[in-house]
Amino acid sequence: MSNFQLRIHVPDHPLVKHWLGILRDKDTPTTLFRSAMTELGRWLTYEACRYWLPTLETEVQTPLAVTPATFVDPQVPVAVVPILRAGLALLEGAQGLLPLASIYHLGLSRNEETLEPTCYLNKLPAEFAPGTRVLIPEPMLATGGSMLMAMTELTKRGIDPALVRVVSVVVAPPALQKISAAYPTMQIYTAAVDEILNEHGFIVPGLGDAGDRTFGTL
């Protein structure tokens, strides 16, 4: 992905590919689709945590001897900001790996004619503590409008874009170009980069509407 300044990570892992294939299949039933979203939320969050969560070096006493030990630093705040509603589908997998993280919901909807986002729910705090790590579960990055709106809200509350990690099932170049121009220090973890948006702003081949398929509202 040398065309973009920000770092795009596509884990070369058989389980990531497996669950992506299930999500792409139009015949996948809602219950299995939800399970696949949870699994990708888990695996992509696992990758995103690498070199992102600060650690403490210490020692512990085993039943036999003292040995060095590494722990995640509990003093550094971590926030998960799922973008509603489809981001909720990835939240369960992410939250399982980050059980102490604070969860702040951000509801954004896209006008299907203009493709511009609007905010209908904002549960972000007035200010984040310095150094807060933020994970954003957002299944699709198509035009990039929703992510840019989310980042505007986060940065004005003190979040450093370099400490933000995005987990997204499928992304497209238009979104990556816009995000790279505005926030080049962000990092995105995704199962696939699809090259095309259709006239309705949907990623092709993509997954279809991730929210509708997750919640059975097709």
Overall number of strands: 14
Report the end-to-end length measured between terminal Cα atoms: 33 Å
Strand content: 25-35%
In the CATH hierarchy, the third-tier topology is known as: Rossmann fold
In angstroms, what is the radius of gyration? Answer: 18 Å
Mean pLDDT, to the nearest integer, reads: 92
Uncertain runs are: none
**CATH C-level category:** Alpha Beta
For the biggest sheet, the summary is: 7 strands, parallel
Instruction: List SSEs in N-to-C order.
Output: EHHEEEEHEEEEEHEHEEEH
Question: Which class do the helix and strand fractions yield?
Answer: alpha/beta
- CATH architecture, please? 3-Layer(aba) Sandwich
In DSSP terms (H or I, runs of 4 or more residues), the helix count works out at: 6
User: What is the count of structural domains?
Assistant: 1
Basic shape: globular
Give the helix proportion (percent range): 25-40%
